[in-house]
């Protein structure tokens, strides 16, 4: 939707958007509601983020915000590319798919855990794993 | 507007509850997500498995009374497994998944906000490649929208009995690991 307003020509020519037209549908409302719900919950319980760079990250990679934000950005790119390729994410495949006992949901669930554990061990080392 | 107003409102309300409960459930926190993959905090697995067992029994019960229908995604095994592997790398680097990332950004976590912007770039990057991938990876070993009961010829209720008992045993075991 944001891309649609910024670069309409580009989006219009795009195969992905030809198949999935970017309009305000119930799924956009779901994302909007999700943000509102999380905001209200965190304010109600005064559970607001204390530090810009989490302690687990800081102990391993230092306190640089720029470094953390850059990796978060790159992580976001990889995350969504994977979700598009798989055709769903933690909610769509992992929870909604798995609870319908869809084969695709369980394959996704397993793949994410295998890859996530290996990535976490490579990033943070064995000494940080399992208590 | 592609959907009627009632459906949009239902989406907003469902989303609000989902976001509220994700935040309450502690899964909008970086150390909780990364801690899961370091096998020292099992909040993510406990949340997901509980949702699967409770939601699954609920959905299949509604389906038995004709009140709900399944929306099963096709088992494009190569695309789903490679996508899942890529997703896992992104989830650890970012420290959130797409839903919890949006929730964490709304709470005011700047790293999650950078992640959400990254996600938009990821979606656009994929859109560029979609025409090419659509004819290749997405079609390899596609079993269609198949479910486990259809695949292994075991009724859904029996699978949920196994999942429920399995989850209870696993959670008890995990509580022991986490306490150490």
Task: Characterise this structure.
The complex is a heterodimer of chains A (131) and B (180). Chain A has helices at 2-6, 8-12, 15-19, 26-44, 55-61, 65-86, 90-99, 103-124. Chain A has 131 residues and is mainly α. The longest helix of chain A has 22 residues, at 65-86. Chain B has helices spanning 5-24, 30-37, 43-64, 77-94, 98-107, 110-135, 148-152, 156-179. Chain B is globular and about 45 Å long. The mean pLDDT of chain B is 92. The chains are: A mainly alpha (131), B mainly alpha (180). At the A-B interface, helix 3, helix 4, helix 5, helix 6 and helix 7 of A face helix 1, helix 2, helix 3, helix 4 and helix 5 of B.
In short:
The complex is a heterodimer of chains A (131) and B (180). Chain A has helices spanning 2-6, 8-12, 15-19, 26-44, 55-61, 65-86, 90-99, 103-124.
Label this structure with key terms:
heterodimer; A: 131 residues; mainly alpha; globular; disordered N terminus; B: 180 residues; 8 helices; 74% helix
């Amino acid at each position: 939707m944001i891309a649609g307003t910024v670069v309409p020509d580009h989006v219009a020519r795009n195969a992905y958007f030809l198949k999935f037209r970017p309009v305000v549908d119930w799924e956009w409302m779901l994302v909007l509601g999700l943000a509102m719900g999380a905001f209200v919950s965190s304010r109600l319980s005064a559970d607001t983020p204390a530090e810009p760079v989490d302690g687990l990250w800081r102990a391993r990679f230092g306190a640089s915000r720029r470094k953390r934000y850059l990796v978060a950005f790159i992580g976001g790119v990889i995350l969504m590319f994977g979700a598009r390729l798989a055709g769903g994410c933690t909610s769509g495949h992992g929870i909604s798919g798995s609870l319908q006992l869809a084969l695709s949901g369980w394959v996704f669930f397993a793949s994410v855990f295998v890859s996530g554990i290996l990535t976490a061990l490579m990033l943070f080392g064995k000494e940080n794993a399992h208590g | 507007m592609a959907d009627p107003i009632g459906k949009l409102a239902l989406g907003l309300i469902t989303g609000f509850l989902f976001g509220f409960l994700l935040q309450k459930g502690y899964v909008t926190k970086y150390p909780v997500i990364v801690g899961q993959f370091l096998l020292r905090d099992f909040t993510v697995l406990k949340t997901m498995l509980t949702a699967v067992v409770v939601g699954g029994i609920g959905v299949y019960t509604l389906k038995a009374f004709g009140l709900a229908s399944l929306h099963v995604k096709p088992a494009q095994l190569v695309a789903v497994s490679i996508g899942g592997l890529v997703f896992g790398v992104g989830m650890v680097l970012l420290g959130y998944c797409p839903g919890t990332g949006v929730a964490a950004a709304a709470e005011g976590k700047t790293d999650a906000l950078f992640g959400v912007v990254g996600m938009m770039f990821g979606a656009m990057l994929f859109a560029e490649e979609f025409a090419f991938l659509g004819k290749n990876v997405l079609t390899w070993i596609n079993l269609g929208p198949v479910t486990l009961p259809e695949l292994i010829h075991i009724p859904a209720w029996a699978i949920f009995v196994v999942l429920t008992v399995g989850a209870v045993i696993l959670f008890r075991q995990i509580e022991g690991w986490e306490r150490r």
